[in-house]
Amino acid sequence: MIERVPDCLEVRVTAASRQEADLICAAVVERRLSADCQIIAPVESAYWWAGEVQRSGEWLLLMKTTTGRFEDLARCVRELHSYEVPQIVAVALVAGTADYLEWIRRETTPRPGA
Question: How far does CA 76 lie from the centroid of its chain?
Fold first, then answer.
């Protein structure tokens, strides 16, 4: 069954290295800030920084969470990230299968004593 989604997000973050991507991925999943985290092979990025066009290899992370957990997830990423201004953007999920969306909600619910 397909469900319209008012409260689930995909969060996209880029990391400077595979090690940084692994660190962030582990932290957001272990803290239940994201139900999952996928690390995508290196991507090439071009962007403006300090008045110049920069180019670098980065690792793309895709995370699924809820709107209620987004601020905590972003705070965790900032704590662990090496960039002064890391990419942390959320894309609203428009629809999804009911069981998968329920899994996201369940796995991002804070546990007692955590």
Answer: 10
Query: Alpha helices, DSSP H only, in the chain?
Result: 18-30, 70-80, 98-107
Element at 38 (helix H, strand E): strand 36-49
Cα separation, 60 vs 36, in Å, equals: 14
Question: Model pTM greater than 0.85?
Answer: yes
pLDDT digits (tens, 9 = 90+) for 32-84: 999 999 999 999 999 999 999 999 999 999 999 999 999 999 999 999 999 99
Beta bridge pairs of residue 46: 55
d(CA 67, CA 5): 11
CA dihedral 94, 86, 62, 66 (to 10 degrees): -50
CA proximity to 26, closest of 76, 66, 71: 76
